[in-house]
Each structure stands twice: as C-alpha cells, then as structure tokens.
UniProtKB/TrEMBL annotation:
Belongs to the WD repeat THOC6 family. WD repeats lie at residues 56-97. One of its GO terms (cellular component) is transcription export complex. It holds the Pfam family WD40. Keywords: Repeat, WD repeat. This is THO complex 6. One of its GO terms (biological process) is mRNA export from nucleus. It comes from Zosterops borbonicus.
C-alpha cells in the first residue's frame, strides 16, 4: 500500500555528477532530514516542503556518517578525510572540527584515518573507523575512553549506560563507558553495518542488526539473538 509522494535529488551541475547518499538521519520533531554526500557535502532537507535548506561544506572527501544532537539544531558528520565536524544549523556553518587520527591514543595509521561510525548523546560523542572507537567529551574536545576493539567499527549507538557497536567480524559489542567490554554477542553477518534500536518502547527494547548477509538479526535481550529474518 506504499506509494511514492515525491523525489528529491541533491543539487548538482549535471546528471553525471549526482552524489550518492551514504547516510541519512531524520529529525522527527522538526520534520527535516540530514544527508551525507559522496561529494563531501552535508545537506539538510525540509520534509514538508521538499526543499534543501542547507548545504554544509568543509569535508575534503566523501562523508560516511551523520548524527543529530537531540536538544540542539546541530549535526555531527564524519568522513573519509578523518575529521568529525559539528555544524550549527542556526548559523549554517561549522562550529567545531576534530581530527581524530591526530590524537595518538586514537590513531591507527595501518588502518587509515577514515571515520565510519558516529553517535552522540548530550555532550558526548563516540566515533571510530580507521581510528579506534573512542568516547569524546564534546565541550572539552577530549577523548576520554578508547575501547579495546581491534577491528574497524562501522556502526555505534548509545544505549542506557553502554555503547553498542559492530564492524568487521561477526559480533555485537556491548561496551561500558569506562572502556570495559561487557559482552561480545555472535551475529549472522561476517561484517556488521547497521544497528537499529526501537525507540518507542522502553519496556520492550528490540535491536536489529544487519550487515554483509541476507539476514537481519533481532534481539529482544541484548545478551542473545532471539531470531533472524532471512531475505534470500
């Protein structure tokens, strides 16, 4: 019963230069979406009018991931250039730049400087990719915890007093904010690309995990996988 209401493409000079969309996050309260572009731009789309309201440029390469700050009209973005940038939509400009790979405790030159996973909650941020997965305090721009995970991480999110993450390898990592690994839960995909936590039911938390596999794993308890949906 679904039908397409409208289609919008990021502004470009020709049909041969339409940038791919690497990530998309929706602000359901204010009805706008933010898109991470293959051309290095971060764009904001008004979902009611269908108009692009901001085009934020600063990344020197493609943007992999975006994250929204809940209480502020601000967006975080991470890209292939190894930077995390904080954008203020009221100003339409960048207000903070973090070059994660330049911090010795985070840097892993053998894996590269790209940022692939990014999440934020209050004044905190977790990010990783080539650099180690790290918890940051945004106001002081300080890395406070480096999580002991060797493979690159592709997706992370905050959940209660933990960080959940996954990447290369068939495991969901349950991490305490002090850096301790609370658990490694086996998953179907050999590499994990996406985590989605049901936001509207505190009593019945459902986590879905997807990646390089035709299966989506479903967790009703973070300690074990309840079942998998197969799309073969």
């Amino acid at each position: 019963g679904c039908r397409e209401l409208w289609t919008r493409r990021p502004p470009c000079r020709s049909s041969l230069e339409v940038p791919e969309i690497n990530a998309l996050e929706v602000n359901q309260r204010d009805h706008w979406a933010v898109l991470a572009g293959g051309d290095g731009a971060v764009r904001v789309l008004d979902l009611e009018s269908g108009a692009f309201t901001h085009e934020l440029r600063g990344h020197q390469d493609l943007v992999h991931v975006v994250a929204l700050r809940e209480q502020l009209p601000q967006v975080l973005s991470g890209g292939e250039d190894g930077t995390v940038r904080l954008w203020d939509l009221r100003l339409g400009s960048q207000v903070q730049l973090i070059e994660v790979h330049k911090y010795q405790e985070c840097s892993r030159p053998q894996l590269g400087k790209w940022i692939r996973c990014l999440a934020t909650e209050s004044d905190w941020m977790v990010c990783g990719g080539g650099p180690a997965l790290t918890l940051w305090h945004l106001r002081s721009v300080t890395p406070t915890t480096v999580f002991p995970l060797a493979p690159p991480q592709h997706h992370a999110l905050f959940h209660q007093d933990m960080v959940l993450s996954g990447g290369v390898g068939p495991a969901l990592h349950l991490l305490q904010l002090n850096g301790d690994v609370r658990g490694r839960v086996p998953v179907s995909p050999p590499a994990l690309r996406s985590l989605c936590l049901h936001p509207r039911s505190p009593e019945h938390q459902v986590l879905t995990v997807g990646g390089n596999s035709p299966k989506i794993d479903v967790f009703t308890n973070l300690g074990y996988r309840a079942f998998s949906l197969s799309f073969t």
